[in-house]
Amino acid sequence: MMGQKKNFRLQSVLNYKTGLVDNLETEFAQLRAMQKSEEEALRHLEEMVQSHSDSLQRQQEEGTLNCQTIELHQKYLRFLHNHVNRQRVRAAEAAAHVEKKREELVQMMQEQKTLEKLKDKHVTRELLELNRREARIVDDLVTTRYARKGYSHA
């Protein structure tokens, strides 16, 4: 019984939570990269719309376009606007996925931290118990030696 160390009962749960946190961090990073990609695609499309609108405006002011060409440009701009709207939805969905994963990750990290605190308390209790046992052994040794010396001089 002496020197017998009790293992932290929830160590397997802590190991499991740590693995989940690692996996969630990886998934979060992937989703965040996907979100940035969707946002960049949206910015690019918006720049295309602006550029094409500016170009159409200049050409109309110069009077170099006929009605059919203007109509084609406007159809293309409508196509781009539709594409921008779809891309906005994709960017918003990616942001929602990132936020959901962030919340999941924060929750799991809190659970992991709670288990780590419990483990720290367990280790502290074990050390206290070990120190008490050592103190009792030392006291017993001192008492035994003192008793031997006292009996040998009497």
Structure summarized in a few sentences:
This protein has one domain (11-119). Helix 1 (11-62) packs antiparallel against helix 2 (67-153). Helices cover 90% and strands 0% of the residues.
Helix proportion range: over 70%
What portion of residues belong to β-strands?
under 5%
- Tell the overall outline: rod-shaped
- Rg, rounded, reads 36 Å
**How many β-strand runs?**
0
Oligomer: single chain
Largest sheet: number of strands, sense, barrel closure: none
Describe the structure.
This protein is 90% helix and 0% strand. The chain has 154 residues and is mostly helical. Helix 1 runs antiparallel to helix 2. The radius of gyration is 36 Å and the shape is rod-shaped.
Characteristic terms for this protein:
single chain, 154 residues, mainly alpha
Topology summary:
Layout: H1 11-62, H2 67-153
Helix pairs in contact: 1-2
